[in-house]
Each structure stands twice: as structure tokens, then as C-alpha cells.
Amino acid sequence: MLSTDPTTSAGLVIREVRTGARNGVPTKIAIAQRDYPTDRADLWEALTDIERIPRWFLPISGELQVGGRYQFEGNAGGVIEQCDAPQRLAMTWERGAQMSWLTIELTATDEGTLLELRHEAPVDPELWSQYGPGAVGVGWDLALLGLALHLSSGTQVDPAETLTFPATAEGRAFIQATALAWAEAAIGAGDDPAAAHMAATQTIGFYTIAPEDDPQS
Predict the structure, then answer these.
(1) Distance between CA 36 and CA 30 in Å, rounded?
(2) What digits encode the pLDDT tens for the residues 81-129?
(3) What CATH number does domain 6-209 carry, 3.90.1210.10, 3.40.50.2000, 3.40.30.10, 3.30.530.20?
(4) Cβ contacts of residue 136 below 8 Å, gap of 6+?
(5) 3-class secondary structure, 177
(6) What pLDDT score was predicted for residue 213?
(7) Residue 153 has what pLDDT?
(8) Residues 6+ apart with CB under 8 A from 165
(9) Contact 143, 57 (CB under 8 A)
(10) What are the beta bridge partners of residue 69?
(11) Positive or negative CA dihedral for 52, 74, 17, 104?
């Protein structure tokens, strides 16, 4: 699935953790930045075209316009709150009763386009203690990797390969590298180093456990 080694691929993303607030409720914001060697129009289309999104992420349905609701198959849904082509996209990110917010901004660079993704969620002390920012961060790392593979070839990323990737040696190495990178971002934001690394270890276990070994299955 990777065109380069896992550590190199993981290192293409710049990660940051910030604290915030929405309506007086404390939040944590996971920020990921990655450069893509394509223009903003192409990257914007890959992110917003209902026919193209499934080529690198998941099948999607709904009204892809401001105020419309969308739903990713087997994953989150929500409401599109802002769509300023080809620069900024903002939406709610809803899974059951859990509400968070996703913002994507594109900036043209000399080499292509810089994508910045921000995932902001209310602070859940238990969840943060258990997984840290890797709970959402590693999942977005996998999505950004799929996007890179699609942009490089123009074809669809094999869904079956995407599902099995975390269980491969290559996938485990990628997830380990990204989870540890998110731990360092959390430490940079003030988290205790030992707690951040423990959360990273648990995140790695969550993403790499084989389905037949899932204790909840």
C-alpha cells in the first residue's frame, strides 16, 4: 500500500495538539498538515466530489452543500457548515451521540498544496487518558495516506487492502510511527510524557488488533 517505508510516510505529516473551547466546553484539537504535489483545484475535487471521495476514503451519501447532511458508510455523518472553494471546508463530525468538528483548509505552495486538517472534540478525560490524540489522529493519518495514494495514481485505493493494511507488518509500523508522533504532539501541548506514551501504546493496540482477536467480538 505504501510507496515508501512506513516511517518516511508517517513523517510527511506535521502534527500539533491544541486546547480550545466551544460554548464554554473545553475541547482538544488535533491538527495534521501534509503537502500534496497537486494544485488546489485537484485536491479540492478529491475532497468534495461525491464520486471521487470513495476512491480514497469511504462511500458517502447526502447533500454535499452548505446546510446539507452527509453520511459516510459505516462511519461518521454530520452537517456541512462552510464550503469556500477551493480553500476551506467545515462540518460537524457526528458518531452516535458524539459530536465533534472537522475543518480542512488548502493553501497553494510552490510545490503543490498544503492541506491542514483540524479535528476538534469536547474533552473526554477518560478517553484522552486511554488513547490521547491518537484516538482520532491515527485514523486521519490513514485517510491522508489513502488520499496521497489516490492522487499519485488517479485510481481508487483498494478497499480490501485498506481494511487489511493495519494488520500487515508495514501497516503496524506505520501506525506505531503515527501514534508515537501524536504522543509527541500531546507532550508538546503539555501532557505528561509517560501518560502520553502509554496512551500511544494503547492506540497502537487498538488499531492493529486482528478482528478475530477483538475481545468484544
Answers:
(1) 20
(2) 999 999 999 999 999 999 999 999 999 999 999 999 999 999 999 999 9
(3) 3.30.530.20
(4) 30, 100, 119, 121
(5) helix
(6) 43
(7) 87
(8) 1, 142, 171, 174
(9) yes
(10) 79
(11) positive
